[in-house]
Amino acid sequence: MIVSEIKDGIYTIFLQDWDRRLFDELIPLPDGTTYNSYFLFDEKNVLIDTADPVKTEKLFEALKRLNVKKIDYVVSNHSEQDHSGSLPDLISKFPEAKIVVSEKGKKFLTSLLLIPEEKFIVIKDGEVLSIGEKKLRFIEAPWVHWPETILTYEEKNKVLFSCDLFGSHLATSKIYSCENEIYEPAKRYYAEIMMPFRTHIKKHLEKIEKVDIDLIAPSHGPIHNSPPFIIDAYKDWISDNVKNEVVIPYISMHGSVAKMVDYFIDRLTEKGIVVKPFNLSKTDIGQLAISFVDAATVIIASPTVLAGPHPLIFYASYLFKILRPKTKFLSIIGSYAWGTNMVKLLSEMVPSRDIEVLEPIVIKGYPKEDDFDLLDNLAERIYIKHKENKII
Ligand code: FEO
Q1: 26 — pLDDT class (breaks 50, 70, 90)
Q2: pTM (2 decimals)?
Q3: What pLDDT, in 10s, does the model give residues 149-200?
């Protein structure tokens, strides 16, 4: 637990979950996570966000350490249970507390946590709540990554409480982020959670850039005391710019696809293209998601299983589709023994947006000389596409 004053009358309540290894029963957390709340003392006392239900007792312990006798407002920036899960217990312990939310946030908290209607104060975009010397301005920021989210800006101390936005799943005993330690966890967090919403984030960043921010205080991971670093990283990730990289999620059952991938990697590398292969039987799916953030091209490589692609390839392709990366070019390579519908089945996984599909190469059995020629041609086509699009 980190309970510490970061600005005059503003305290962190960082509850580390050192051992958590999966989020939403889906997202790998190699470095654990933290659930961050913030307590603001003034004429009115305010708690910004709560914690995951598994940490409710720790949250109460922190409030005791801060000698909190009353809570006037609980700002719920985001209704997902890792930040709202302690609310039912909190409002029973502090019955005077009102929950400050967006209209949609109220609907979520009513339906997900069965909180009675009379507990809420609904705020609108730009509204300011004075709590004494401190003033809280609310900024609606839908789709980072739920539709109800708000950011809270404390005007006197210039602190932006950004909830999930700019967060990182990183259990740490540090209050402030260190640039070279935070980049990778923050990028992983963006890739897994924020990437599908990059057009929304673009608009939110335009709003945020007009605000004078001294600290960005997210609800996971350490605080950013150098806001331009994380804002610039986000600007890069959400931009339409791609890198001269080819990502190859692949599976090989009996060596044919592995031989194709191995040969293909060498041909691409010779052309100065950075290649990131991911053997899906071993890979951390989060690393694959990170690689999707920037790569110009994705090549899916699969054997045939019961006439279709390997199930792990289906999984990775579905992930690719729903994460909506800015990838420009896509293709499939693979092998079959007696028949395949692989290309037809995988084509349903192509995102419904501007992405150019290059002619797939699906061969019979182990690759032969003609098949290597086809791979040479595909490597050359990718090189030309990257060049034509000024990616190289
Ligand atoms: Fe950290 Fe969307 O909850």
Answers
A1: confident
A2: 0.94
A3: 999 999 999 999 999 999 999 999 999 998 889 999 999 999 999 999 999 9
The tokens 């670093």 sit on which residue?
229
Pocket of ligand 1 (CB under 6 A): 78, 80, 82-83, 145, 164, 219-220
The angle at the Cα of 279, spanning 276 to 280, to the nearest 5 degrees, equals 120
Tell me the CA–centroid distance for residue 271 and ligand 1, in Å. Answer: 41
Looking at the fold, whether 252 and 316 belong to one and the same domain comes out as: yes
How long a stretch of residues is the chain?
392
- Ligand 1 atom with the shortest distance to the CA of 149: 2
Q: For residue 55, what are the CA distances in angstroms to 59, 222, 230, 245, 313?
A: 6, 18, 27, 41, 36
Cα angle, residue 230 at apex, residues 204 and 221 outer, rounded to 5°: 100
Q: What is the pLDDT of residue 27?
A: 86
Whole-number Å distance, alpha carbon 385 to ligand 1 midpoint, is 38
- The answer to whether the peptide bond before residue 254 is cis (omega within 30 degrees of 0) is no
* Cα distance between residue 162 and residue 198, in whole Å: 16
Contact 276, 264 (CB under 8 A): no
Q: Which domain holds residue 107?
A: 2-238
What is the CATH classification number for the domain harbouring 296? 3.40.50.360
Report how far ligand 1's centroid is from the alpha carbon of 384 (Å): 41
pLDDT of residue 22: 87
For residue 329, give the amino acid letter: F
Residue 61 is part of a domain; what is its CATH number? 3.60.15.10
